[in-house]
Amino acid sequence: MSVFEEGTALVGKVKSADGTIQTKELLEVCRSILPIVDKLGTGFGLVKHDVGGNIDRLASCAATKPEVYQADAFQMVRDDVAAGTHTGSSSVTKGLLWLKRAMEFIVALLDKLHSDRAMPLSTAASETYYTTLQRYHGWIVTGTFTVALKLVPSRETFFEKVGAQAGDDSTMQQMHAFCTAFGVVLADIQTFLAENDLDDPTKV
């Protein structure tokens, strides 16, 4: 099973029968993406570190009330808001927000590689960054990403590292299926954050 097939299978378990986003299952999908981030090159070590840190933050919170928080990721945020701790940089709310943003970047990048099968990875990564994450970054972080974007491997090398072939139709279909399925989950998270005025535009 490819990393994309595995991801799609995991996404299918994220929502409960009533449509609630389950924390453990959501985080399992995000963990499955870490190897993909890793294959983008050493410059993306910061992204991998941030994603891993936010996964751990949400997992630690969920473990404090597993009967409630594992079944509903959003309840952790509601309780965070109720406690007035949601604006802190290390809050659960900020953890979910930034995890969602990082995942949106990865999904958008993979989708771009699917849409344009001739586009170099460096071009796809750069274009995706400037249409997703860059708006939330100050000049220092943007500078760091600018360097990272220059260090990505070739498109062919990237796909080889994730155990696939760059032009293989089966790989492209699997990747697109993952992007489509996980994109729905990320859109639900974005809707929740936006409706509760938690989509903080402050730059880091």
TrEMBL record:
Transport recorded as keyword: yes
Keyword Transport applies: yes
Keywords of the record: Transport
Pfam family, one: GLTP
InterPro entries tied to this protein: GLTP_sf (IPR036497), Glycolipid_transfer_prot_dom (IPR014830)
Upper taxonomic lineage: Eukaryota, Viridiplantae, Chlorophyta, core chlorophytes, Trebouxiophyceae
Superkingdom: Eukaryota
Domain Glycolipid transfer protein intervals: 21-163
Protein name: Glycolipid transfer protein domain-containing protein
GO cellular component terms given for this protein: cytosol; membrane
MF term (GO), any: ceramide 1-phosphate transfer activity
SUPFAM superfamilies xref list: Glycolipid transfer protein, GLTP
